Amino acid sequence: MTEHCKIKRKLKNDIKTYADILNSPYISDKEKELMDMIYIQKYDYMFIGDYLGVSESTVKKRHKDLIKKIGKILKAGL
């Protein structure tokens, strides 16, 4: 399993990790909104793209970049 997948699984299954990330000063409000839409509201990328006024591929890229950022935050123990 790739590191990317491990982080996504951890966010989906570990509410404490999810809450810690949401409270992190390193995550912007826009990134928190994206996390909420994906992990809590469980919207698909197409819906999120329509809502945000961007393409589905842009949402996927933002999510992938956010997962990388979260991985760095988790490794740093912040």
Topology:
Elements: H1 3-13, H2 15-22, H3 29-40, H4 45-52, H5 56-76
CATH topology: Arc Repressor Mutant, subunit A
Largest sheet: none
**Helix and strand sequence:** HHHHH
Helix content: over 70%
Number of strands: 0
Structural class: mainly alpha
Tally of structural domains: 1
Low-confidence stretches: none
Short précis:
The chain is mostly helical and 78 residues long.
Protein architecture, described:
- This protein has one domain: Arc Repressor Mutant, subunit A (Orthogonal Bundle).
- Helix 1 crosses helix 5 and helix 4 (45-52) crosses helix 5 (56-76).
- It contains five helices and no strands.
- The chain is mainly alpha-helical.
- The two termini are 24 Å apart.
- The protein has helices spanning 3-13, 15-22, 29-40, 45-52, 56-76.
Name the features.
Arc Repressor Mutant, subunit A, 0% strand, 78 residues, mainly alpha
